[in-house]
Every structure is written in structure tokens, then in C-alpha cells.
Amino acid sequence: MRILLFLIVLVPFSCSNETEKKTIVGSSQNEKKESTVAKAHITNELAGSAYRKRADSYFIVTGSDTSSFKPVFSEAIETGLVSLNLNLPYSKATVSYEKRLFQLKQILERVKQDYQLDSLTSVSYGRLILSGDLAIEMTKEYEERFGQTEQVSTKQYKQISQFLLTSILSKDLNRLLKPYHRSVKRIGIEKVFFTTKNELLSYSYVEQDTSLLPPRIIDFMTWIELGNE
User: Fold this and answer.
1) Potential cystine with 47: which of 7, 137, 164, 204 (Cβ 3.0-4.6 Å)?
2) If we measure between CA atoms, which residue out of 100, 103, 119 comes closest to residue 54?
3) Residue 13 has pLDDT above 60, yes or no
4) Which residues partner with 33 through β-bridges?
5) How far apart are the first and last CA of the chain?
């Protein structure tokens, strides 16, 4: 299943998009714009469809603007378990980490009409640096806990996974999923290493002052296992 999580790739959407729930958000000019949660059915457009009952991508549309953040929810055929892939793009992001959290909160309110969220058992992030400000905060927390190490050995992965359970990554997810009685139980990681702040900035939208960023940023592939709150 882990392999399937990382294989999720979106293709361009067409007339299969559905506009779902309407909300109201304020603009910087204190004007009100109509915001909707839209959905695209992509079950047959993803790798591994033989194991999947269904899959949908959700995204926010505000006025004429469509958010580039398009998380994917899918349900397995045999078990009925639900998975979430954040589907963060390997391109320059236009949505910050905080805005993604806000949009995901809106999206979850719509998704619960389609999926049994008490069956949500996994969240796939992909590479940490695609999360922008989260990767920066994770770097600071890591160095406070382990110091400024040059490299990370695979022997340390278990210790790092335990550390992540008390990190901002877990805290933000637990707060987001609390209404659905889900919480982080385990965080899996692969290929832990340090990359440059320039690579971070090339892939993500950062709200912090970029002149104050650490010279190196921790990065890894990560997936989260969820359980009852």
C-alpha cells in the first residue's frame, strides 16, 4: 500500500469536475467572494486502479481562481479503508503550508459527505520540503532535539519517527482531524537527508523571511498512519 500512496499522480481535469459546497471568504479589500469546494473523479486515471474502489481530487475555487492544492482521497476495494494523498506538486508552489491547512479543513467538511472519515487510515506527504514552512519548522525542531548532525543514519530512523510523533507535523494533523476522531499513530520515513534552502524555495511557497532560513533543511519521504483519537 505504501508504494501505491507514492504513485498517485494527477492528470489535467476536464468536464468531470463537480462544484460542491459554497462558503464565503473575505478578501484583502474586505470584499466577499464566493468560495466552493470542487471535486474531480479520477479513479481510473491513477496507477493501481485495480485495487481501488474510487478516488477523487478536491480543490477550492474562489471566484475565477482555482487552488493548485488538490489532495486526493481514495477507498480500497478489499478493505474499504480510506487514504489521503496531499498530492503536493514537484513545481514551484503557489499555496503556503498554512493556507493548505485552511483549505484542507474546508475540503474535509465536504469529503465527509462522500467518504467514511472514521476509516481514514493514512496520509501521504511525499517529500517534506514540498510543505514549505513546515519543513523549516521541522528542521528547527530536529536540531533542537538531535543537534546539527552532518548526516542521518538509517539506524536513527526509528528514533526520528518517535520524535515526529511530538512534532508540529503531528500536532497540526491531530488538530485538523480531531472533529473526525482520527489521530496520528505512526509516522514512517525514508531517505532522510539535508538539502539546501535554495531547493526548498524552488519547490515551495514560504511565508517566513527567506533571509532568516537555516542554510540546510531536513528532507525525507513521509507517510502517516492514523487511528482512533
Assistant:
1) 7
2) 119
3) no
4) 25
5) 23
The answer to whether the CB of 187 falls within 8 A of the CB of 150 is no
- Where do we find the cell 523571511? 209
- Residue 38 CA neighbour count, 13 Å, CB half: 23
Question: Is the entire prediction scored with pTM above 0.70?
Answer: yes
| Cell, residue 213 | 532560513
85-101 average pLDDT score: 91
Q: Which amino acid appears at position 79 of this protein?
A: T
**Is pLDDT above 70 for 76?**
yes
What the block records as the C-alpha cell of 12 is: 489535467
Q: What is the DSSP string of the chain?
A: -HHHHHT-------TTEEEEEEEEEE-TTS-EEEEEEEEEE-GGGSTTGGGEEEEEEEEEEETTEE-S---EEEEETTT--EEEE----SS--SS-HHHHHHHHHHHHHHHTTTS-GGGEEEEEEEEGGGGTHHHHHHHHHHHHHH-S-S---GGGHHHHHHHHTTSHHHHHHHHHHGGGTEEEEEEEEEEEEEEEHHHHHHHS---S-GGGS-SEEEEEEEEEEEEE-
Q: Which of 166, 183, 193 is nearest to 224 (CA)?
A: 183
pLDDT bin (cut points 50, 70, 90) of residue 122 is very high
C-alpha cell, 144: 533542537
Cα distances (Å, whole numbers) of residue 35 to 6, 38, 154, 219: 30, 10, 45, 33
